Amino acid sequence: MPPHSADYEKGTSPAKGTSPTKEAPTTHGRVLVLCIDRDDDIGSKGGIETPIVGRDACINAGTRLAIEDPEDADSNAIFGAVKTYEELVSKGYTAEVAVVAGKFNRGVEADEKISLEVKSILEKYHADGAVIVSDGEDDETVLPVIQSRVPVISVQRIIIRHSRSVEYSYAVLGRYLKMLVYDPQYSKFFLGVPGVLLAAGALAVIFDAAKWVTAILLAILGGAFIVRAFDIDKAVSSLGRLTPTSFIRIFSVIAGILIILAAIANGVSSIPPDMLQPNMSAFEVISNRLLVGSFAHGLITLLWIGIATILGGSVLTNWFRGSVRVVSDILRLVVLALLYIPVLQFTSVLTEGTNPFTLISSLLIGLAVSLVAATFLYQYFRHRKGGNEVLKH
C-alpha cells in the first residue's frame, strides 16, 4: 500500500496555514474525516489507489479526479472532506482525513473493500470517532460497515450548487415556453384555446348565462381538440394552394362519400318493412339472417361504387404526379373488384341459403388473380422506374 503522508504514521496531521486555537470541546480526542467513494471513481477515472490518507494526498487525488472528469461530484466530496478536516483542526481537534473507495459495480465486494481499507487506516491512526463525507445516499449505505469499526459522530453530504444538467433543463424549458408564446404554430392552441375559454366564460357571466358556462367551455374545448386531432386547421389553410391533382382527390372523396351514404340509405330501404319491429334489440337485428342479408344486398353495389370512386381519384392523382404509389392504388381497385362477387354470394347465403362452397371457390379464384396482378404490376413498374423503389411503397 503506497505511503501518502508523513503524519499518517504519527497520528497527527496539522493543516497548512492553520493552528490549533483551543482544546476540542468533546470527548472524542482523535477524529477521522472519511470521504467515501463507493463506486471507485477515484481509481477507475483518476488511477489512484486507496486508501488515501493526509491532507496533501487527498487534495492531489481530488485535483486529479477533477481533471479527468470535471463533472464528477466525488472530487467535490474530497475537497469537502479536506475543508471539514481543516475546520476541526482549527477548533483544536486532533484529526486526520482519508479517502476510501469500493468497486465499480458496488455491492458486497465494494462494501467489503471499504471495510478493509477503514480497518487498515484505524490500525495506524487510532481514531475514536469518524466524520463521514459523501456526495449522495449511495455512498452513505456503507455507514453500518464503518460503524462496526469506529463510531460515526457526524455525516455530511456535499451537494453541488449548480448542475449542468439542471441549467440545461432550465434552458430547454425556457426555449419551449418561448416557443409556445411566440411561435404561431403552437401559440394558437396553447394560448388561443385558453384565451377563448376565458373570454367565453366572461361573456357568459356578463350576459347572466352562468348556468351555460360549463356546456359552452366543454363545447369549445372539444371542438379545439377535434380540429387539432384531425388536422382540420391545416386542411383549411391548404385550400388556397391546391394543385390540379388535389382537386381530383377532393372531388373523388366527396363523391365517394355521397355514394356510400346513398348506399346505406338504399340498404335500409331494401329491408322488408315487416322484418323491422320497434322493440327489437340490437342482438336480434344482427342475428336475423334475412334482415342482414337484405340490407347487405341493397348496400353492396353502391358501396363498392363509392369506394371505387375514392380509389379511382387516388389512382389518377398519383398517376399525374408520377408517383409509384399508383401501383398500390391499382391493386386496391383490383382486389375491390374481385371481392364484389364473393360478397354478393355471401348475401345470397344469408337470404336464400345457397351453398357456401361457391363462395369459397370465388375467394380462392380472387386470391389467385390478385397474386398474378400484383406480380405483373410490380414487375412492370419496377422495370419502368428502375430499382426497388416500387417495392418500398
Write the layout of secondary structure elements.
Elements: H1 7-10, E1 30-37, H2 41-44, E2 52-53, H3 55-68, H4 74-90, E3 94-101, H5 107-124, E4 129-134, H6 137-140, H7 143-147, E5 152-157, H8 164-182, H9 184-190, H10 192-206, H11 213-229, H12 232-237, H13 244-269, H14 282-287, H15 289-321, H16 326-352, H17 357-385
Give an overview of the whole structure.
- The protein is α/β, with parallel strands linked by helices and 393 residues long.
- The chain has 3 domains: 7-161, no CATH class; 165-237, no CATH class; 242-392, no CATH class.
- It has 17 helices and 5 strands.
- It has helices spanning 7-10, 41-44, 55-68, 74-90, 107-124, 137-140, 143-147, 164-182, 184-190, 192-206, 213-229, 232-237, 244-269, 282-287, 289-321, 326-352, 357-385; strands spanning 30-37, 52-53, 94-101, 129-134, 152-157.
- It has a 5-stranded mixed beta sheet with strand order 2-3-1-4-5, with helices on both faces.
- The protein is elongated, with a radius of gyration of 41 Å.
Question: What is this entry, summarized?
Answer:
With 393 residues, the chain is α/β, with parallel strands linked by helices. It contains 17 helices and five strands. The chain folds into three domains: 7-161, no CATH class; 165-237, no CATH class; 242-392, no CATH class.
Largest sheet: spatial strand order: 2-3-1-4-5
- What is the terminal-to-terminal distance? 68 Å
Could you give the order of the helices and strands? HEHEHHEHEHHEHHHHHHHHHH
**Shape estimate:** elongated
Uncertain runs are: 1-25, 386-393
Number of domains: 3
Percent of residues in helices comes to: 55-70%
The strand count comes to 5
Overall structural class, as computed from helix and strand content, comes to alpha/beta
* Largest sheet, strands/sense/barrel: 5 strands, mixed
Mean pLDDT over the residues:
78
